[in-house]
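Posting for a labmate who doesn't have an account.
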Amino acid sequence: MRFRETGFDATTVVEICESADIAYGTLFNHFPTKLDLLRAIVDESQDTLAQNVEELAKEVGSMSDKLHSLFELVARYSETFGPGQRDLVAQMIALGYQESPADKDRRLHSIFRGFLESGVAGGEVCEEDLDALTEILFGAYSSLTLGWVHFDDYPLAARAQHVAALLSRILKRT
């Protein structure tokens, strides 16, 4: 992806077309603006996250194990972007929250809620606490991602595992 190499703002439409080996006009047939292309990338990224989280929820094991796997996945995925691509991740995060239709506005919440619902089905998560736990899980995900985006020395993998351990302890109390 050309954005990964030079960043969103520095990448021109001409460079995108050359990299993808498509005509300039062809790109605009599918994406009216460069921002629309990034929106499609964000949608694809959220689809991938949803698939991975759904697979984790189906795995055999405790919610504690699944939480550790979830946050390990988040750390690994974020780090695939590398330090020089944090501005791209920041742009993707911003797009995930602005100008989104109502059905997409809470997409990440529904992904994490589905994950926790597997814990309800397994008797490890109290259904009455599901809304609050979804907010906590989403907040932890967002905080970790934003910390990594904004601080070069942010210890994402270590923090992700600490957050997973803390959330595991919270779930045991509910």
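Reply:
Got it, the structure tokens are right above this. Residues 14 and 26 are 12 Å apart (CA to CA).
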